[in-house]
Amino acid sequence: MSLLIPEAVAQDGAPQQGDPMITLLMFGGLFVFMWFFIIRPQRKRQKEHKALVDSLAKGAEVVMTSGMLGKITAVDDEYVVVKCADNVELSFQKVAVHAVLPKGTIKGINQA
Length: 112
Description:
Strand content: 25-35%
CATH architecture of the largest domain: Roll
Number of domains: 2
CATH class of the largest domain: Mainly Beta
Largest sheet: 5 strands, antiparallel
């Protein structure tokens, strides 16, 4: 007799297994959950960002992922040239553009 570990009662030697259909339903439910709450929203954001990058044009005022504001002065296949101050132009990859601002936003911020 063990004082710390209770002895097994009526053990038949083989572990009991549940219904395999329940297991399949659980895996299916997990996949559906991941699809609607993780994969689908991420794909939607990727499509929106690709549309934004494809629509970049000269003269657009943008916010970069670093938080820098600027006006696009040139657009290439993979890069944009952004004017962020007088006589200061920087080259960035197109994917580094976070958002396009309405016209006149930068001028309004500089005056404030």
